[in-house]
Amino acid sequence: xxxxxxxxxxxxxxxxxxxxxxxxxxxxxxxxxxxxxxxxxxxxxxxxxxxxxxxxxxxxxxxxxxxxxxxxxxxxxxxxxxxxxxxxxxxxxxxxxxxxxxxxxxxxxxxxxxxxxxxxxxxxxxxxxxxxxxxxxxxxxxxxxxxxxxxxxxxxxxxxxxxxxxxxxxxxxxxxxxxxxxxxxxxxxxxxxxxxxxxxxxxxxxxxxxxxxxxxxxxxxxxxxxxxxxxxxxxxxxxxxxxxxxxxxxxxxxxxxxxxxxxxxxxxxxxxxx
Length: 274
Hints:
This protein is α/β, with parallel strands linked by helices. The protein has a single domain (5-269), classed as Ribokinase (UDP-N-acetylmuramoyl-L-alanine:D-glutamate ligase), CATH 3.40.1190. The protein has helices spanning 5-25, 38-48, 61-67, 80-96, 111-123, 133-143, 155-169, 204-216, 222-241, 247-260, 263-269; strands spanning 28-32, 51-54, 70-74, 100-103, 128-131, 172-175, 180-184, 187-191. The chain has an 8-stranded mixed β-sheet, with helices on both faces. A hairpin with a 2-residue loop joins strand 7 and strand 8. Helix 3 (61-67) runs parallel beside helix 4, helix 6 crosses helix 7 and helix 8 packs across helix 9. It starts with a helix and ends in a 5-residue tail after the last helix.
């Protein structure tokens, strides 16, 4: 689907508005995520203006979901207790209409990961699913019998798989990579910002998922929220790249860029068809 100029301008102004709302409202983002990226994710959310809470204890997940602006489930760390918490949180999000973002980390890599992904999707339909091309392809094959998703793992095939997922669940699917795609039914937005150094930093994809959670906490339109989140990530990556000598300095500069980015900077630097 291609946008008319008036529609494009409307979407672009709203993307900037989402960033402004994140910075002014400070949405509380409940993250059930993996050990490797907890610190990265929390710092990124704080830098952009959101308020992270990292809570996975069974005894409190229902209470935390209830008071949060959004729920982010990242299934990077799997164990019996963590899975129980994820399912409980997803069910509570459904019960309380709390916006829910799902990151199916490594789905398809093991039978257990695939089983857990299916369990989470059965517990509640995410407003947004975010993954890389391989994860989206694996999830599409898990939930559809359509022959088209069995082909190669390039981005265009992942777009096809994401479209199938989006139509099946009536939600938004994000594919992150060199070009980011935000897909809601037949509507496809592309974001072409970002730095190659982002692939050299642990947890950038997981951070993108959390950023979607922050934006979804202030914007109920899932496509708009996800497009804004991926635009923020990409432009902040561009900004950090200009000041960085390598992955170490990039990570530090990325946090600073999330802190410094404004709606005006986002408007000027984002490369998207929206």
